[in-house]
Amino acid sequence: MAKIPVMQAVVEILKSEGVDIVYGCPGAAILPLYKAMEQDGGIAHLIVRHEEGATHMADGWSRTTGGVGVAVGTSGPAGTNMITGLYTAQADSVPIICITGQAATAKLHQEAFQAVDIVGVAEPVTKWAVQVKEAAQVPWVFREAFRIARSGRPGPVLIDLPIDVQKQEIEWDASIDAPLPVVPVEPHPPRVERALDLLLAAERPLILAGGGVIIADAHAELRELAELLQVPVQATLMGKGALDEDHPLYAGMTGVQTSQRYGNASFLESDLVLALGARFGDRHTGDLDVYRGDRRFIHVDIEPTQIGKVFGPDLGVVSDTRLFLRAILDLARARGVRREAGAWVSRVRELKATLTRREDFDNVPIKAPRIYKEINEFYSADTYFVTAIGLYQIWGGQHQKAFRPRHYQVCGQAGPLGWEIPAAIGVKTALARTEPDAEVVGIVGDYGFQFLVEELAVAAQYDIPFVLIMINNEYLGLIRQAADHGGYAMNYQVDIHYDEAGTDNVKIMEAYGCAGTRVVEPGGIRPALEWARKEAGRTSRPVLVEIMIEREADTANGVRIDAIREFEPVS
Which residues are in the Thiamine pyrophosphate enzyme TPP-binding domain (predicted)? Predict the structure, then answer.
């Protein structure tokens, strides 16, 4: 078997694992990999302005394609800059691989330049973090990294490569190599039987679609089961898009923040919940005593240790969500089970029609719900959205509709500020071959916008168009709200003034070779969105629509952030 540079083998492995683009920036300790990518030419590369941005781009690519995104950095601070992205991917079950360069193995104990124990730093926020000390191990470590990233509950892996290891040659033949198999997690048949028995015995059942439905590409099976048994479907924040929100059986979202009033009401009237790939996160459950009530729970999850982590369900099923849904569908058909819509479905539809939040505000300053009304009416079901953390995540959960899986992408648990711009780049580049004309829209806040704003330079350099809709209240609204509810009555360091010394976000866009406009009246929203669409298409660059809103956004438009049981009227 002929010898080849070990980094050439890595590039060949990346391609065979479905990687068509890598996000990163070169440095002295990772140059052998970059040289191999240059010589091969089969993998595109975007040079980022910050390594955290690279991880979020890989994250957005992975959420869109279902594959394993890849980010690359050199040694030292490059790796530590990636930690937030690794944590974000781990929290939301996103498979990415971060590759870092490292000082020579003989220098690691001598505090060499930019030598840091990145494996030790990354271990708490990865499924696997490994430093490769033998060149012959490199191909196998990469194969195992992809297998681990994809297996069970997906997640991130970090591979650290000392520079001396990268420079070696190994025996490797790509023609007889292949990805390692990922073993499917199938449900135990008796538990599927019990799950169907419980579902059929319930008078007011709900299906709760979590992020596991999206990850498993189980949306078709979810809809099929819901329609066969006429069971209303709710979604968690990570499950938005698992079922078209205009579907007659869609029953909203339950939670203390990202929720609908009719979703909370439907949930509290239910007597059984079939939870599919959901974590029972604290912003979804709120008060556990209220959340659990007298209802029964079936928890299906691919990761065994997730079951019982928050509370013990009446039935736990370890399974890939899609395989479980197929199994329970086959069982229901074998039994000849089929239900018509009854009183419970009618009740859920009644709640959905009546317990709504107002959106048709004409106020100046603009009220946030009006923005989401315009977004829902302007953009098609084919549009891809990315959004992150803050009041606009709450408003998005409450008001924005999602129609298809992988089209509403939100960093849920970690909530890093600045995620949207690099994530939008990852989403748009993921669609380059399959849906090159697809619209990508990032919904951002005025504060988080500035955290990784430098990645606009990447989009401008590589002609990556998308629209950013900024909801700007000029202060840290969610922090003020949290302070008020926490009893701090704090008004300290939460203002981001828009005065002469403040930030002009439109000029920031222009400085990066992009464009932007500011909206101050509700009637200006639609024309601005139309302009942004045309401008992004004309320039092939990001475009900003900055919408100035009211500063007082207390109680997140009608529902307190601290109690699932609250249903105050909307003013």
Answer: 389-547
Using alpha carbons, list the distances in angstroms from residue 122 to 31, 152, 160. 22, 20, 10
CA angle 30–33–36, rounded 5-degree value: 150
Please report the pLDDT score of residue 558 as a whole number.
Answer: 40
Cα of first residue to Cα of last residue in the chain, in angstroms, is 74
Pairing type for strands 515-519 and 543-548 reads parallel
**Residue positions counted in the chain:** 571
Q: Treating both helix axes as pointing N-terminal to C-terminal, what angle do 31-40 and 6-16 enclose, rounded to 10 degrees?
A: 60
What is the separation of C-alpha 352 from the centre of its chain, rounded to a whole number of angstroms? 26
Neighbours of 497 (CB within 10 A): 10
Which residues have CB under 8 Å from 471's CB, separation 6+? 368, 371, 391, 392, 395, 443, 444, 445, 446, 547, 549
Domains of the chain, residue spans: 3-176, 189-354, 368-556
Right CATH for 368-556 from 3.40.50.300, 3.40.50.970, 3.30.565.10, 3.90.220.20: 3.40.50.970
User: How do residues 145-175 score in pLDDT, each as one tens digit?
Assistant: 999 999 999 999 999 999 999 999 999 999 9
Nearest residue to 456 (alpha-carbon basis) of 471, 447, 468 = 468
Low-confidence ranges of the chain (pLDDT < 70): 475-487, 489, 491-492, 494-502, 552-571
Q: Which residue pairs, CB below 8 angstroms and at least 24 apart, start in 219-226?
A: 219/243, 219/404, 219/405, 221/322, 221/325, 221/326, 221/329, 222/276, 222/325, 223/247, 224/325, 224/329, 225/325, 225/328, 225/329, 225/332
DSSP state of 571: -
Report how far residue 215's alpha carbon sits from residue 405's, in angstroms, rounded to the nearest whole number.
9
Per the DSSP assignment, residues forming a β-bridge with 5 are 169
Pairing type for strands 543-548 and 467-472 reads: parallel
In whole angstroms, give the CA distance from residue 240 to residue 252: 9
Question: Given this model, what pLDDT does residue 557 score?
Answer: 43
Provide the pLDDT for residue 478.
66
Q: Which helix (H) or strand (E) holds 157?
A: strand 157-162
Which architecture, in CATH terms, is 189-354?
A: 3-Layer(aba) Sandwich (3.40)
Alpha helical stretches, state H, 47-133: 51-65, 77-81, 83-91, 118-122
Q: What is the CATH number of domain 3-176?
A: 3.40.50.970
